[in-house]
Write a structure and sequence with these properties.
twelve-stranded mixed sheet; alpha/beta; 270 residues; Protocatechuate 4,5-dioxygenase, Chain B; 10 helices; 24% strand
């Protein structure tokens, strides 16, 4: 970093969660997009995608982000919502960075949107220390870079102090004013259950998400539950329709079936 006005958040998990080489990374993302077995949706306005290493969750992430490939190119902002894994942010943690970097290049932050949110009260805090090691938003960026090309982002980390419906109310006027913008929620599903137990729990949770049943979804085990509930509240207000795109868990893709982590892909359309 060179100054407060040109603060670039460096990749934290390149070489661990995904390839550090730009050409290899782009090829891997395209391969996962190609493996998706659904046609691209039209009118996509939001996604839920997993955030594990690509070897484990890439096939589900590919199904999620394939939904964006039919969108026209536009100057859009992507609100990136995910759970704060490493540090309490006491609500929603924003970033003072002007860009987030991946091996594919820098993604500019919509700093004016960050400033707007940070001015709404104590539920929003600038917390670069929370963002620095966090993988959940970073792993979504290469998929967005390949599918959207140029875009700007608003990185938002939630912890248990975040109030999903309040954050949804804050985002609604921004989304209404800029209908080309997108919401992307980064979340894995249940963690460390035996395979079939995880499948049953995750399918029940995804069904609740698809039905817009926030009360039932609130009982789920997704690590990004609060960002998901925020998106569900937005979808309810804007009459967005949820589409289940894919499900798998680590027992299907990269590990033992004794204790698995679940991955789900969901798209919302207008």
């Amino acid at each position: 970093m060179t100054s407060a006005t040109t603060l670039v958040r460096a990749p934290a998990v390149a070489g661990r969660f995904y390839p550090p080489d730009a050409a290899q990374l782009a090829a891997e993302v395209r391969r996962y997009l190609t493996l998706a077995d659904r046609k691209a949706l039209t009118g996509v306005c939001a996604l839920i995608a997993p955030h594990a290493g690509y070897a484990c969750s890439g096939i589900v992430a590919g199904a999620s982000f394939r939904a964006l490939t039919s969108l026209p190119r536009a100057e859009r902002v992507v609100y990136l919502l995910g759970p704060a894994h490493w540090k309490a942010v006491h609500g929603v943690g924003l970033s003072s960075a002007t860009a987030f970097a991946t091996p594919l290049g820098e993604v500019a932050v919509a700093t004016e949107r960050v400033a707007h949110l940070s001015g709404l009260g104590e539920r929003y805090r600038i917390d670069d220390a929370a963002h620095a090691p966090e993988h959940c938003l970073e792993v979504e960026l290469p998929f967005l870079q390949v599918t959207l090309g140029t875009f700007r982002c608003v990185p938002m980390l939630f912890d248990d102090a975040a109030k999903p419906e309040r954050v949804a109310a804050d985002l609604l006027p921004l989304l209404a004013a800029h209908p080309e913008d997108l919401v992307v929620v980064s979340s894995d599903l249940s963690h460390y259950h035996p395979y079939q137990e995880a499948v049953n729990a995750d399918n029940g949770f995804l069904k609740a998400v698809a039905l817009g049943d926030m009360a039932a979804a609130n009982g789920g085990e997704a690590c990004g539950l609060l960002p998901i509930l925020c998106l569900m509240s937005i979808a309810e207000q804007l009459d967005w329709k949820a589409h289940l795109l894919a499900y798998a868990n680590s027992g299907d893709t990269c590990g033992s079936r004794r204790e698995v982590v679940g991955y789900g892909g969901v798209a919302y359309t207008e």
